[in-house]
Specification:
With 717 residues, the chain is of the alpha+beta class. The chain folds into five domains: 2-78, Alpha-Beta Plaits (2-Layer Sandwich), CATH 3.30.70; 95-210 and 321-388 and 658-712, no CATH class; 220-315, Calcium-transporting ATPase, cytoplasmic transduction domain A (Distorted Sandwich); 397-424 and 537-643, 3-Layer(aba) Sandwich (Rossmann fold); 428-534, Calcium-transporting ATPase, cytoplasmic domain N. Helix content is 49%, strand content 18%. The longest helix has 36 residues, at 91-126. It is elongated.
């Protein structure tokens, strides 16, 4: 439980939820409650997210009552926000196993019923005795129809009357009563075949996401003072020593103290190239030790580790639905009752007011009901978005919700930060220009002033200085955000920072010329010189920018660096528009300008390193944090987290979004197109029960199989 925008937020897992339409109705019932601000239910992974109104909440029993009033047999359990039940540390994983095993067990039952139904049907067809044939037809029908009829009868006592069970029960009972045994049995058999595909696709989708959950190992080897013992990762504390054997996953963010190994971080970053590490190297939780025995010191507990936050992010993505997904859910809510009443009118009006044969129009109404079942849309659309998020996660692109995945298709302008985004951020001092004093003195004052900073430029200066820094030499210190540092070092007033900083302090200094980052140094109001620091453009930057421009997505670069440096980087990267010498609040103003220039949801994207750019990332329609591995600011502020620092991942994210949208739109067009045409044909007697079966089961199977393609996005063009 945590406090969010609306008040208290909680996550739950659902058991026994096997109907996508029922899931939509449960979500509707929860959203209608006066205490609940917003409810989001994901049928694919059976997760429920509730935003309660401020100072309001509901007990688990009260939520269970709301759910039971809609769908009997569905139970709710509170989780810790990462998909795990509260009872035990590993209950969430056990639940996942049960869900997966239950899905395949359900598939086996369906196959047995299908086989039994076909056997009885075959026997009835070849039977010479009419009474025996009728009995065999009845058994064949019961094999497929009894779960539908039982569910439909139960739903008579709930608000969930008009669902697929009701439609299929009425249609098949009516067909059987009219003597159309083959059609009635065929509908139930093919309906069960459709359910097999549905259960399989959902199980595979859950398994796909669950494979990401494999980032978290079941145990760690922790040193207890005399030996290494196996314990759950949650038991480790900061400073504990753990041992990681070859082939084991790294459970926690840690620093290697002994040994060396090749570390595979592909599960986190999507990149297959292993990295060689040794004593002093920091490695993130979720990576894999390939070949070495290493000991490491835990840097942070499991709840604060990179892998824990990543898993929570993936699980939480299901709560944020795309506009298309919400529309389909709302559409199905009104569509099903509408077609039921339309079928009743189709049966009654021609018979009652036009004197037509009741049997003919009754049969047309039954066909109309079978055609109208909305399962193809209700299942395939969420499955498509879920698969797209899963495919992106496997490539090191963490998308916090289907709404953000869909919004990637609407981007009109892409704004980049420079350092660590377009450039590597691997700064090196390439020159020290001296006006007064000596080179060593300038480096020393700059290094001591930057002693408390972890910024890449500060690290470059300290590296170039090369000596041990004695922080006791600093008697006063003030950092002016975006400009520089004032410090009193050994009694001297030292100013280190931006050219504008020295202007503000009215310190006269030389004009800096050069396509590089510069840090000016002044001592006791007297200009000493400047340090020239070079940064390298990332190899993928120019290609990513070129691709975006080809897609008519305007690119812009914002940076606090000087104009000459910015112009040089923008020219090499191919970025047509840039703004230099910007303070953090000025970056925010520029972003607001582009949001106003391109109004609309999701039209303006910003990508930064997730540390210094958190305010701009949070303000953008779509905020990208690059190199989010281990960055709290990145995971908290961004809508999309790129786990490595490659700009090529931006292109992949947009390509995955576009592919997902195409597949979702294909499913909508397929389902509505086929059903629309056959509904008209059925009303005029031009479509039979077998056509209806195709319009329902056939279209659902095709849509589900099509949605599953989003889970296996392996390469892009």
């Amino acid at each position: 439980m945590y406090r969010g925008v609306f008040g208290i937020n909680k996550d739950y897992s659902l058991k026994g939820l096997d109907c996508a339409v029922c899931a939509a109705k449960i979500e509707e019932a929860l959203n209608a409650h006066s205490f609940i601000q917003a409810a989001s239910l994901n049928f694919i992974n059976k997760s429920l997210h509730l935003d309660f109104k401020d100072n309001c909440s509901l007990s688990l029993g009260e939520i269970q009552d709301i759910i039971s009033a809609v769908e009997d047999g569905v139970t709710v359990a509170e989780t810790d926000g990462g998909g795990h039940a509260h009872a035990h540390a590993h209950d969430g994983e056990d639940d996942d196993d049960e869900d997966e095993g239950g899905a395949y067990a359900q598939i086996k039952k369906l196959i047995y019923r299908i086989a039994a139904g076909l056997i009885f049907l075959s026997a009835a067809i070849y039977s010479k005795n009419p009474a025996a044939a009728f009995a065999l037809y009845s058994l064949s029908y019961i094999c497929g129809a009894y779960p539908l009829i039982i569910s439909a009868v139960k739903n008579l006592f709930t608000k969930n009357l008009f669902d697929e069970n009701f439609l299929m029960s009425v249609a098949t009972i009516g067909a059987f009563a009219l003597g159309d045994y083959h059609e009635a049995i065929g509908v139930t058999i093919f309906f069960q075949i459709g359910e097999v595909f549905e259960h399989y696709s959902v199980a595979r989708s859950r398994k796909s996401i669950k494979s990401l959950m494999g980032l978290r190992p079941d145990y760690i080897n922790i040193f207890d003072g005399s030996s290494f013992v196996k314990t759950p990762p949650e038991s480790a504390k900061t400073g504990d020593i753990i041992r990681i054997k070859p082939g084991e996953k790294v459970a926690l963010d840690c620093l290697i103290t002994e040994g060396e190994a090749s570390i595979d971080m592909s599960a986190l970053t999507g990149e297959s190239l292993a990295r060689r590490v040794s004593a002093g190297s920091e490695i993130p939780g979720g990576s894999l030790n390939i070949d070495g025995l290493i000991s490491a010191r835990v840097l942070r507990p499991y709840a604060e580790s990179s892998v824990s936050k990543i898993l929570s992010l993936i699980e939480g993505a299901a709560a944020k639905k795309a506009k298309t997904e919400k529309f389909i859910t709302k559409f199905a809510r009104y569509y099903t009752p509408t077609v039921v009443f339309a079928a009743m009118a189709l049966c009654i009006v021609p018979w009652l007011f036009m004197g037509h044969d009741f049997t003919v129009w009754f049969k047309r109404a039954l066909i109309f009901l079978v055609i109208s079942c909305p399962c193809a849309l209700v299942i395939s659309i969420p499955l498509g978005f879920f698969g797209g998020i899963g495919a992106a996660s496997k490539r090191g692109i963490l998308i916090k919700g289907a709404n953000h995945l869909e919004a990637l298709n609407n981007i009109k302008t892409f704004i980049f930060d420079k350092t660590g985004t377009i450039t590597r951020g691997n700064f090196e001092v390439v020159d020290v220009v001296v006006e007064t004093g000596t080179r060593e003195e300038i480096l020393k004052y700059a290094a001591i002033a930057e002693a408390h900073s972890s910024h890449p430029i500060a690290r470059a200066i300290k590296k170039a200085y090369g000596a041990e820094i004695d922080e006791s030499e600093i008697s006063a210190y003030e950092e002016i955000r975006g400009l520089g540092i004032k410090a009193k070092i050994n009694g001297a007033d030292v100013f280190v920072g931006h050219d504008r900083f020295l202007h503000d302090e009215k310190i006269e200094h030389s004009v800096c010329i050069g396509a590089a980052t510069t840090v000016h140094v002044a001592v006791n109001k007297k200009y000493s010189g400047y340090i020239v620091i070079a940064d390298e453009l990332k190899p993928e930057s120019a290609g990513a920018v070129e691709w975006l421009e080809r897609q008519n997505i305007h690119t812009v670069m914002l940076t606090g660096d000087n104009h000459i440096t910015a112009e040089n980087v923008a020219k090499i990267a191919g970025i047509p528009e840039f703004y230099a010498d910007l303070l953090p609040h000025q970056k925010v103003e520029k972003l607001k300008f582009y949001k106003h220039k391109y109004p609309g949801s999701g039209h303006t994207a910003f990508v930064g390193d997730g540390i210094n750019d958190a305010p701009v990332i949070a303000l953008a329609d779509i905020g990208f944090a690059m190199g989010g591995l281990g960055s709290d600011a990145a995971i908290e502020s961004a809508d999309i987290v790129l786990m490595n620092d490659s700009p090529a991942k931006i292109v992949e994210a947009i390509q995955i979004a576009r592919r997902t949208r195409i597949i979702v739109y294909q499913n909508i067009a397929l389902a509505l197109g086929v059903k629309g045409v056959l509904l008209v044909f059925g009303a005029f007697g031009m479509a039979g029960m077998w056509d209806a079966v195709f319009a329902d089961v056939g279209v659902a199977v095709l849509a589900i199989l099509n949605s599953m393609r989003t889970m296996s996005v392996s390469r892009f063009k």
